Structures are given as structure tokens and as C-alpha cells.
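dumping this here before i forget
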Amino acid sequence: MKNQFDILFEDEHLIALNKPSHLLVIPDRWDANKPSLFAMLQARNPEHKIFVVHRLDQDTSGVVLFAKSAAAHKHLNQQMEHREVEKVYFAIVTGEVKADGKIDLPIDIDRGKKGKVVIHKNGKESLTEYQVIEQFKGYTLLKVIPRTGRTHQIRIHLQAIGHPLMIDPLYGNSEPIFLSSLKRNYRFKSDQDERPLIDRLTLHAAEICFAHPATGEKSRLSAPLPKDMKILLNMLAKYRGVRKD
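structure:
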């Protein structure tokens, strides 16, 4: 099985990977043959058991942690439970977000649609903070810090404030983004179909900060912005840039 990831950090206790989009973190429940980071790591280290510390959605890119021992796994899980692990994401959202803010809305599972969540008063406490990094005409780049770790938290919270991810099949737009949708009077000069600039969730797990399970020292690991999101941001800046008065 060919590796589809970059190793950001590895020692005898843990391994951090830069997950590409479209790749599962854990094996699919219904099709075990689908590629996953866990299966790749376990095949790479057959003599050692690999433990999943946290997950990313299949179409989200960025840093993911795995433990290489039960002790390290327990230590990291306890940090997660006590909200001592900080995660930082970059999200490209629809609409022009005017200022930094917080989203404090409870999240519950959607009993009408499997695999989806909703904002509901009886849901679990959920808190997301965000900062405006760059504004465009009709879109915004946000730095997002989820203070709790609910399923689809960032995605549903951004939708709840009227700024869903630029692409999000469950909570917003499901269509890929093409240059023709950003550039006025764009003409595609080719016999082939126009290729999308990006065709997945516009969300990237950029950083994770935690105490190393063996030394207790603060560790901060980063995953660079992937090529598709860089290209999208460049095109937004070029064709949807905010005019400076």
C-alpha cells in the first residue's frame, strides 16, 4: 500500500502526519479495503500497535496524531478530555466576516439524517473561536480554534452564523469551485472540461499543541496549507480581492 502522507514528527511515543484530503483516518465501517491512515501506519509498523488519538473528516486536510503505545494514547486522550490540547484550523468560508468572534451553541446528532449534526438546545456544550485573517469579495479566510471537540463542530458552527465553508456538502455548497465562478467573463480555451480549483471541504487542520506524553514538554506541530487551498486563496486575492480605500 503506497503511503499518501507526510510525517511531521515521529518518536518512540507518537507520530504526527499531514493528512491529504479525500483520505480516511480510520478504516471505513462498511468497506475495510478503502485506504486509511491507520491501516497504512499499521502496515508500516506491523510489530507495534498503533492508536488513534483524534480524527479529521475524510475531506479535511492537515495534522493528525497517532500514539505508538497504550501509555502515550492514554496520556494524550486525557489531555483531549480535559481540553488541554489546542487545535488550529484554517477555513475559507462563504460571505464577508467582519470581525473576530465566538460561537457558543450546543450541538446534537441529527436524528433525521445519519452522519450529520444540528444546533439544538439539548445538545452538548460546544465553543468555537475564530479570527478574520483575510477578506475577499464574498468570501473570508478564518483562523478557527475549536475549544470543544464535537463531531463536525466547526462546520455546523460556521453554518449557524451564516458563513458555511465555501464547499461543504452537508452544511452548505456541494459544488466544486472553478476559476470561471470567480473571474468575470472567464473563457475556458480548451477542448477539455474545466478543472476545479478545489473540490473538497475548504478546511485545513493547521496546528496542534499538546504536552508530550513522555516528557510533559509543550509540543506544537504544524501542517502547511495544501496546494489546492493555496491556489484558491491566490485566485480569490486576484479576482475577488477587497478594494483598499
